[in-house]
Write a structure and sequence with these properties.
8 strands, 3-stranded antiparallel beta sheet, mainly beta, single chain, 5% helix, 1 helix, elongated
Amino acid sequence: MISGLERAQSHRIWFVPEFSVWGLAGWSEIEFIVTEQVQSITSVLFGSIDIGDVSQQVMFAGLTDHRGNTLPGSLSAPRVIVRPRSIDRAFVVGNESSEGFKIARDPDAAGPVLTDLLIIEMGD
């Protein structure tokens, strides 16, 4: 049987310094109504459009930790902690998957935001 201390120490952890976050949180879908008049016929149109998701998709296999090691392509129950290096913030969008995660920056930031990432494999 594995003790609590052994279980806590068995998790793998990576520190990825100076990661640049350029993505923004998606606006999702908006609904609209439009009226159109062609000669004497007036039509009312209703619809919805996806504005798009411009959050940044990050794959674990594409990251390198502070020691120069490439992270594995798949992690078991990963969690990503974002540590901003300036007053501008960044955050994980949605839930992390075993292969990667989505990240976005504060939309009020003037440009990309520099952060540090702490990636923890929680395991089963």
